[in-house]
Amino acid sequence: MSRKVSKSEASFNSKRTGITEEQFKLELLYAQQIKIDKLEKIRSNISKIVWVIAIMLILSILGVLLQYR
């Protein structure tokens, strides 16, 4: 029993029918590098958000402490 293949998958497969194993590995490596770069950008953005929240929290605590002085 074969599964249905979407148009985009069929197009993807037809473009890659004649590639060598080396070309295939290079495509995999390229795709993996793109994912790594995107994940690094996400990690960097999350780190910045955490620092902003931490600074705001510290300033809020200092504000409350100085108000009751």
From TrEMBL:
Membrane-spanning ranges: 49-68
Transmembrane helix found in the keyword field: yes
Keyword terms, alphabetized: Membrane, Transmembrane, Transmembrane helix
Protein name: Uncharacterized protein
Native species: Aureibaculum algae
